[in-house]
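Troubleshooting: if your tokenizer reports a length mismatch, compare your output against this known-good record of 131 residues.
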Amino acid sequence: MLARFFTGFVHDRLLHRRGPGDPELITVKGQRLIRSCPVIIYAGSLVPAAVLEGHQAEQVVNSAELHLEQIIELIKAADAKGQDVARVHSGDPSLYGAIGEQIRLLRELGIAFQIIPGVTAVVRLRGAAGD
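Known-good structure output:
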């Protein structure tokens, strides 16, 4: 089992104040992750539902109302079943460290994880100049 953090989903609200990020700015790797993992935990207050289109997950959980401990319990349960988890965040892992506390706990529990960055905010900002 591997908890995979897809964290590079660009949040347009920071750039244009027009709502969540553009779902078309997902990387191929991020989209493949969402479509292949049996468990998806996504930050529903920040990640548009369109990002999850095409998934075939057995379990999809909006973590917007969950506490850190509840999120970790979901990952632990998937780990016990040998299931990969797609943990979908918005933001750039090099600029925004919301996943740090989750990673610390996963390390303590001995649960393997991988960080899969997506489109960096800098690229989106440059593209916004032409909007």
